[in-house]
Amino acid sequence: MGILGAEESTRMELEELHRMLVAPAGLERRKDEEDQFKEVRVSSEGGMDTDDVEKLVVCVTSGVSYLGLAIVNELLLRGYSVRIIAENQEDIDRLREMETSGEMRSTNDNISVVMANLTEIESLSEAFQGCRGVFHTSAFIDPAGLSGYTKYMAEIEVKASENVMKACARTPSVRKCVLTSSLLACIWRDNSQYDLSSLVNHDSWSDESLCTDKKLWYSLGKLRAEKVAWRVAKESGLKLATICAALTTGPEFYRKNPTPTIAYLKGAQEMYANGLLATVDVNRLAGAHVRVFGAMDKNAQGRYLCFDNVVGRDEAEKLARELEMPTNKICGDVSGDIIPARFQLSNEKLSGLMSTTFRHCYSEC
C-alpha cells in the first residue's frame, strides 16, 4: 500500500490497517479490487502508473488530528486519493479508532498510510513520492502531556514546516502545497502605532518581537512557520497557499483538540476587546483548504484568512461554556460601556474564491 521506510512489524501492521480502512462493510476486498490498488501504488522510481490517478493523489501530514481528519474526509468526498503520514504507534492506534468509530469516510481503495518523520527531509520526500500536492496541517501536541504550547514547541513547528517545504521542493511529483497557518500570524501588532490600519486581512502580519515579549508562543510558532514556508517556496519555485485559520471549533473541539485551543486563547481578552477573536467550524476550514488547493492550478495563491464569526458577548458565553471556564477569561470585564472594536477582520479574499468555485461547480453540475 505504498508504505515507505517502515520497520517490518510496523509495515505489516499498516498493511492490516489499510485493509481495515478500505474494506467495505468489513468484508475482504475482491480480487479485482486488489488489482486496482496495485495499479495506483507508488513505483520504485517514485512515479505513478497512470496520469489520471496521479492527479488525484495527495498527502496530509497530521492526518489523525482534529483538522487533519476533517481535511482527509473532505478530500475523500471530492474523489481524491489520500496518503496519511503516521509518525508513531500512537498515530496508527488513532487511525484504527477512526476506522472503528466511522469517523473516516473511506469505503474504497482510496486511502493509504505512510510512516515518515517530520524531522527528516529524506523521510518526508519518500512519503511524498507520487503525490501531486501536500497539505501540511502542522498539528502538534505538548510532549509533556500538558494543555499548553511552549517556546520549544514553537521551534519544533518551525523546523517541521521548513522540512515539509524542502521535501516538497525535492519531490518531482509535488506541484503545490497548502499550509495551515493561523489568524494569530496576522493580528498581533503594536497598537500604539497611530498609523496602524484598522483592517486586518491577508496582507497583515503579526509583529514577531511583540509575540516574543508577550510570550505568545503559539502565535510565534505559527508566524515563523508560515514565514519559513514562504521563504522556501520562493527559493524553490513551489506553489504555496496558506490558510490563516481562526480558533477551530466544531463537535467536541476542546476534548479532541485541547492543546491548540488553549494555546490559541492566550491573550483572548485583548483579542476580544480589539474585535480580533474569531472562530471557524472545522468542516468549513477543511473545505477551504480543499477549495484553495483545487484553485491553485488557476490563479489561487498567497494567504487566506478563514473565519466564520467574530466573537461577541453571546459567542463568548457559549465558547466559555464549551471550554468550562468563566466568561471573563475570554472577554474580560464587560460590565462597563461597550467600546467599539478598533480593528476589523476581513476574509474577503477567501470568500471571493469560495463563492467563485461554488458557482463554477453549480453551473457544471
- Find the structural class using helix and strand composition: alpha/beta
CATH homologous superfamily annotation = NAD(P)-binding Rossmann-like Domain
CATH topology: Rossmann fold
What is the gyration radius calculated from CA atoms?
Answer: 21 Å
Strand order of the largest sheet: 3-2-1-4-5-7-10
Q: Which second-level CATH architecture applies?
A: 3-Layer(aba) Sandwich
* Count of distinct strands: 12
Q: Please tell me the overall pLDDT.
A: 82
Report low-confidence residues grouped into runs of 5 or more: 1-8, 19-54, 359-365
Highest-level CATH class:
Alpha Beta
- Helix residue percentage: 40-55%
- Beginning-to-end CA distance, first to last residue: 33 Å
Overall structural domain count: 1
Q: Give the oligomeric state.
A: single chain
**How does the overall form come out from the CA principal axes?**
globular
The helix/strand order is HHHEHEHEHEHEHEHHEEHHHEHEEHHEH
Main β-sheet: number of strands, strand sense, barrel status?
A: 7 strands, parallel
Strand content: 5-15%
Number of helices: 17
What's this entry about, in short?
The chain is an alpha/beta fold and 365 residues long.
